[in-house]
């Protein structure tokens, strides 16, 4: 094999992709995520790049090459030629690094930071480790870690990332921290009689599968009301599509304000 660093231009990337005869289907979301990283200056050359077989076919790196074209910016990467033709059998078979592996942040906190990063930086684009760390350092990490430690229990749906995300945002936005922590802990420990009316209604909706993690934004809209002490005596929890949009906009605005403050 012959590995060497090259500055791969968009034109070179197009040429390399012509040799992509038998590779995985292109994942557009991953290409866009890599392209955005290149545009933000977050690309770091590593031993991974593109690889060509002894027969001259592209074995690895199609998404990186597509990202160079989309970003329209040259990047330096390792280009390896002369790889065995059957090497595709073992490519990408290693254990994938989790977000926690990449950032050093606990898995549950990294989940919340990723939700907020996607809201802050735009839709469902791929987020980088640097963005996750930026979110963490706004105070999100400290508040979320404290919330999880205070509760001390994880349970399906009730301690899911959307719920922890909303709780963290509301605390950072100045809502009653102790009230929110108590509601969250009592939800997770399912202390039904110690919950206000609106939280009891939410517990019933989770039990009936009317509230699920499958609809993240609907769930966020529900718990935004559950953690609001001003409507704690409401006996019936209802949400609409506009409530879901408002909940995501609320969390987006909170984290963007935090990021703006952090950058000053």
Summarize it.
This protein has eleven helices and four strands, in the order E-H-H-E-E-H-E-H-H-H-H-H-H-H-H. The protein has 264 residues and is α+β, with helices and mostly antiparallel strands. The chain folds into two domains: 88 residues, no CATH class; 165 residues, no CATH class.
Q: What structural keywords apply?
A:
54% helix; elongated; 11 helices; single chain; 264 residues; alpha+beta; four-stranded mixed beta sheet
Task: Summarize the helices and strands and which ones pair or pack.
Blueprint: E1 2-8, H1 10-17, H2 28-39, E2 49-53, E3 58-60, H3 62-71, E4 75-83, H4 99-103, H5 107-121, H6 129-151, H7 161-172, H8 177-188, H9 197-207, H10 216-226, H11 241-263
Parallel strand pairs: 2-4
Antiparallel strand pairs: 1-4, 2-3
Helix pairs in contact: 1-3, 2-3, 5-6, 5-7, 5-11, 6-7, 6-11, 7-8, 7-10, 7-11, 10-11
Going by helix content, strand content and strand pairing, the class is: alpha+beta
Strand content: 5-15%
> What's the domain count?
2
The number of helices is: 11
Secondary-structure element order, as H and E?
Answer: EHHEEHEHHHHHHHH
Radius of gyration: 23 Å
Strand order of the largest sheet: 1-4-2-3
* Morphology: elongated
Mean pLDDT: 89
N/C terminus separation:
49 Å
Main beta-sheet strand count, sense and barrel state: 4 strands, mixed
Number of strands: 4
Query: Helix amount, in percent?
Result: 40-55%
Structure in words:
This protein has helices at 10-17, 28-39, 62-71, 99-103, 107-121, 129-151, 161-172, 177-188, 197-207, 216-226, 241-263; strands at 2-8, 49-53, 58-60, 75-83. The longest helix is centred in the middle third of the chain and has 23 residues, at 129-151. The radius of gyration is 23 Å and the shape is elongated. It has a four-stranded mixed β-sheet with strand order 1-4-2-3. By secondary structure, the chain is an alpha+beta fold. The chain has two domains: 2-89, no CATH class; 99-263, no CATH class. It has eleven helices and four strands, in the order E-H-H-E-E-H-E-H-H-H-H-H-H-H-H. A hairpin with a 4-residue loop joins strand 2 (49-53) and strand 3 (58-60).
């Amino acid at each position: 094999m012959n590995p060497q660093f090259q500055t791969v231009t968009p034109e070179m990337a197009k040429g390399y992709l012509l040799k992509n005869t038998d590779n995985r289907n292109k994942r557009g979301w991953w290409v866009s995520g890599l392209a955005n990283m290149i545009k933000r200056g977050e690309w770091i050359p590593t031993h991974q790049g593109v690889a060509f077989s002894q027969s001259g076919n592209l074995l690895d790196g199609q998404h990186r090459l597509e990202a160079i074209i989309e970003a329209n910016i040259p990047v330096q990467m390792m280009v390896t030629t002369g790889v065995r033709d059957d090497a595709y059998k073992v490519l990408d078979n290693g254990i994938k690094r989790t977000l926690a592996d990449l950032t050093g942040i606990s898995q549950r906190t990294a989940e919340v930071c990723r939700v907020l990063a996607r809201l802050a930086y735009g839709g469902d684009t791929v987020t980088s480790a640097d963005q996750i760390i930026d979110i963490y350092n706004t105070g999100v990490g400290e508040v979320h870690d404290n919330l999880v430690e205070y509760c001390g229990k994880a349970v399906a749906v009730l301690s899911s990332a959307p719920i922890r995300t909303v709780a963290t945002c509301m605390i950072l936005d100045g809502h009653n921290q102790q009230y929110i922590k108590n509601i969250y802990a009592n939800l997770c420990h399912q202390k039904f009689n110690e919950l206000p009316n609106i939280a009891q209604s939410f517990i019933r909706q989770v039990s009936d599968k009317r509230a699920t993690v499958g609809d993240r934004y609907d769930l966020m809209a529900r718990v935004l009301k559950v953690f609001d002490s001003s409507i704690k005596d409401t006996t019936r929890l209802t949400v609409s599509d506009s409530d879901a949009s408002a909940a995501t906009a609320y969390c987006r605005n909170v984290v963007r304000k935090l990021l703006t403050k952090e950058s000053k």
